[in-house]
Amino acid sequence: MSSAMKLQERVSVPRTAWKLADIFILCLLFALLSCRVASLREGGASVAALVCEAWFTFVWIINMNIKWNPVRFNTYPENLSQRTDELPAVDMLVTTADPELEPPLMTVNTVLSLLAVDYPDVDKLACYVSDDGCSPVTCYALREAAGFARLWVPFCKRHGVGVRAPFMYFASSRPEPELAGDWTFIKSEYDKLVSRIESADEGSLLRHDDAADFTEFKEAKRGDHPAIVKVLWDNSKSSRTGSGDGFPNLVYVSREKTRKHDHHYKAGAMNVLARVSAVMTNAPIILNMDCDMFVNNPQVVLHAMCLLLGFNDETCSGFVQVPQRFYAKLKDDPFGNQIEVLREKLLGGLSGLQGIYYLGTGCFHRRKIIYGVAPPSFAAVKHERQGSLTYEDLRTKFGASVELAESARNIYSREIPLKPMIDISSRIQVAKQVSSCNYETGTHWGQEIGWSYGSMAEDILTGQRIHSAGWKSTSPDTNPPAFLGCAPTGGPASLTQYKRWATGLLEILLGPNTPIIATIFKRLQFRQYLGYLVFYVWSMRAPFELCYALLGPFCLFRNHSFLLKASNHGFSIQLALFLSYNIYNFVEYMECGLSARTWWNNMRMQRIVSLSSWLLAFLSVVLKTIGLSKTVFEVTRKDKSTSDGDPSTHETDLGWFTFDSSPVFIPMTAVAILNIVTIAIGVWRHAIFWMTTGNHDCQNIGEFLCCGLMILYFWPFIKGLVGRGRYGIPWNVKLKAWVIVVAFLYFCRGD
Ligand SMILES: O=c1ccn([C@@H]2O[C@H](COP(=O)(O)OP(=O)(O)O[C@H]3O[C@H](CO)[C@@H](O)[C@H](O)[C@H]3O)[C@@H](O)[C@H]2O)c(=O)[nH]1
Ligand SMILES: [Mn+2]
Which residue, by CA, sits nearest to atom 8 of ligand 1? Predict the structure, then answer.
């Protein structure tokens, strides 16, 4: 490949000053630990502090590892123009699960933006939507969307529209003179589409004239129904004037469900989509999108192709993940879930190791890797063997469908004829067969093939499996951002999302797929393993942070001290550590172009998340491990209106922390109350001491400051204690929290 025609470039990002800061803080941490060890005789609180600080040092080290040598990939899609024949087909898979929590209009926008992406040959694209909600409204919305796409897709291409999700396009653009007529027409058609979708209700859809389209939904119950597969748009049948017209096939799938079977949530849905797309179009590349994300850069598929085709050794780019970014962002990130710094620093750093994690959405996979093919550089022998797998082998791996086995054989042997969807009705029958509940029984789906089962974070687990096989991954850096998604707002949705992630991540760490095995016996690099640990230990950080957060109140209550005294340098080390850690974080936020307020909100949310979401995640995995309960995928509520992309209208309302009676709020509420109570007790005790002895010396000034800082961190909860309605903590949560506080004080009362 001549350098003039290069498709991608791997650039190291320099960070010498940061490395020095990393080491400086590490030295302070070690100094603190040694002072602690030297002063251990001071009692129980300082043993606890030592254990926590040792843990914090470990967390710092694994974070240093991940951030150490970041890499960025530049992509040059213009250089693909001479290679358009080589461009592979792409199956675009979208999942939706619940028409209440995920409004069909949102899914429709995701799908429309995908149908309108730029790709030289639209026949190479196909879009599949999995609906775990089995909702006729979603199906209807998608059918109507396919109708609208006939206008929308040509409109976007004619005028080079940038943002191809109509709700966002119309929220952010005004009619320009040269396309005024066209704009107004499309806008009014979109408005009609919106009102049809928003006024659609299940009952009337099933009763109405064209109810024939929805007969399959009549008997269907959400958790118990046969598979439904509908081809909503067949591009091969469309009457087109020439190539470049038309838009990708659109297929609706609601997999079979029964109460008896485990459905494996999103991983199960993705595996069904992988099979349905295999028997219909069998594209060698799979793009996976959540329903709450849209294409923000129409060239995204081309950028991804630069990374998929641009290396001489494809091992370097097993999959291409676009890290999540969000739209309609709340000002200053009040819920700490826009993950800007995490994306820049941690995910960017991973690119310098074996590569970014698979994050569940906005990811381009090679179908053969999903089917378990090892990288060429490692296993030429194994690869050839897969090419010559017998039907029996294929059927044990992939299940009973002959068509699926045939399609897999094509993927393995790398002859991938592009099959138009001829004979739709028989394909639909096969698609239904591979979407049935017991199709996977006895096969390798969910294990070596497809999306892996066994964790709420199926994405990270599946990515880890791919890295363990020896593949690397890459991530394009496009401007404008490739995809935009929606971050949850409000306390309950944000904390629940963090809880699910932390649960899933710990499930992986403690489960049979724990990454150390892959490091020893497979090809997961050691530093990548440490990179995975940064996230896997999220929920394990909770008990340590909780313990550390309780030291202040405990010492105030018992009139002890856990902080090191000025006498042995310990105090200055603690102070230096506190300051340098916070300055380090602050500068990271500044470097990412964020406000000081965002920094503070994120510091605060980190403490809140670990004492609520991570703590509960920790407990629920412990309960699961000892067999007392199961973990459940709780779908995140998407409460942002898709008909209104303008964040400023919601700002004042949505920046507030909201509560409900979920147990996730109990520990934080208890810790907040505890800090107030112990400060009060401490002040009272010192006042008495001062009045009786006239002595002003305060031994606990450090502990007072710690508790004061906690109160600042937990401010949303302090407000929640007195707030009303959604903004107040419900009384039953407060009651449980008080019980915990009283119990804690009772057990700490000493002699
Ligand atoms: O039984 C289910 C549950 C969820 N989903 C879909 O999974 C996606 C992600 O769910 P969401 O509630 O939006 O979760 P997020 O926290 O936003 O998702 C992040 O975290 C998940 C893992 O916890 C990943 O699967 C996602 O890709 C990633 O974006 C959505 O499209 C859902 O429709 C299903 O299809 N079936
Ligand atoms: Mn989501």
Answer: 290
Q: ipTM of this model? A: 0.98
pTM over 0.90: yes
The tokens for 203 are 């009952």
707 secondary structure, DSSP code: H
Dump strand ranges (E) for 323-459: 363-366
Per-residue DSSP letter, 627: T
CB-based pocket (< 6 A), ligand 1: 95-97, 102, 130, 132, 265-266, 269, 290-292, 360-361, 456-459, 497, 500-501, 504, 633, 635-636
Angle at 715 between CA 711 and CA 717, to 5 degrees: 105
8-12 vs 71-75, strand pairing mode: antiparallel
Kindly list the domain boundaries of the chain, sorted by start residue.
12-68+514-635+656-748, 90-488
Query: What kind and span of H or E run contains 129?
Result: strand 125-131
- Amino acid in position 560: H
Segment 201-251, tens digit of pLDDT: 888 888 875 667 888 998 889 999 999 999 999 987 765 545 456 899 999
Say how many residues make up the chain. 751
pLDDT in tens, 292-305: 999 999 999 999 99
CATH class of 90-488: alpha beta
Contacts of 190 (CB under 8 A, 6+ apart): 148, 152, 166, 170
Beta bridge partners of 72: 11
